[in-house]
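Researcher: Quick test of sequence recovery. Tokens follow.
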């Protein structure tokens, strides 16, 4: 009952946030603002992050140890902390608002401090990354993705390995149609603009299988 009440309150609050979204000025990232945000990112606590994840019922969508229970939500396990931290900042600012699926996260992040976000981010970064079943041929277009994603350096982009194919496809389409505005240098918009929906699906299925 407590869990249901919490989720209901968050969704209700998120609705009011979303309704005021058009009246709210949302800043886009550039290299300077992202570098500044990273410098100001508090040092996270894994133990406190674990408690926050339990208290906030994050496992409802993202799983007990950061592996999503449904294809609608991203797995957070093993993601470099700065990227989970950034996503939470983007939700709170309203920058990450694609559709009704984003509405709950907008509401949930409103009372969160940057310390809370950092704690959650480092907690999930410590969890074991999901592993796919393999067996999917590497698409040619995926080479461009791998220049930043899973290149061995997560400073430039988060890992996509084992991520839900539905989630990856949804994000790529959002970039393609200029609905997702969270990138720092607009590179994702340039790359996805040239991808047809069939290619996007193949890329998403490949990463999910890894």
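Model:
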């Amino acid at each position: 009952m407590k869990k249901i009440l919490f989720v209901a309150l968050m969704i209700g609050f998120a609705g009011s946030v979303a309704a005021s979204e058009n009246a709210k000025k949302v800043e886009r990232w550039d290299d300077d603002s992202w570098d500044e945000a990273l410098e100001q990112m508090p040092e996270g606590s894994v133990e406190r992050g674990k408690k926050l994840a339990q208290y906030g019922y994050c496992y409802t969508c993202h799983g007990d140890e950061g592996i999503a229970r449904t294809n609608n939500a991203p797995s957070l396990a093993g993601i470099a902390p700065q990227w989970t931290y950034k996503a939470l900042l983007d939700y709170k600012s309203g920058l990450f608002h694609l559709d009704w699926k984003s509405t709950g996260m907008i509401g949930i992040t409103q009372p969160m401090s940057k310390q809370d976000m950092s704690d959650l981010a480092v907690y999930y970064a410590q969890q074991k990354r999901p592993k796919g079943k393999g067996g999917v041929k590497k698409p040619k277009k995926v080479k461009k993705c791998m220049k930043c994603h899973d290149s061995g350096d997560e400073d430039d982009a988060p890992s996509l390995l084992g991520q839900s194919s539905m989630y990856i496809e949804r994000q790529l389409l959002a970039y393609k149609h200029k609905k997702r505005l969270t990138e720092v240098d607009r590179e994702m918009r340039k790359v996805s603009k040239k991808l047809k929906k069939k290619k996007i699906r193949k890329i998403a299925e490949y990463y999910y299988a890894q």
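The CA atoms of residues 6 and 56 lie 8 Å apart.
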